[in-house]
User: Fold this.
Amino acid sequence: QVQLVESGGGLVQPGGSLRLSCAASTSIFSIYVWAWYRQAPGKQRELVASITNDGRTNYADSVKGRFTISRDNAKNTVYLQMNSLNPDDTAVYYCNAPQSSIATIFLWGQGTQVTVSS
Assistant:
């Protein structure tokens, strides 16, 4: 069973930055698309950013220009650089490989909590 381990979250002030990491227990090279998702309290999980194996990226409008997704196939790790954070970014962040608009290939990991507050 593939394990996804997210890390790098924490408490940050508005305007601050964090870099999230997602380590997979399998080779990520064979998976074409990887993505970061987030789930805020009382809300549905939403896709934040995605990246293909050839480096094409896509972002939710709410994070465009502030977040950057990247992947290191050699390290089996996907990253999310988050800048100019605001309280609306507070959520648990997860990574996974999208299978469709609503399904993912792997089971969810534990996620990493990001809290933006002064």
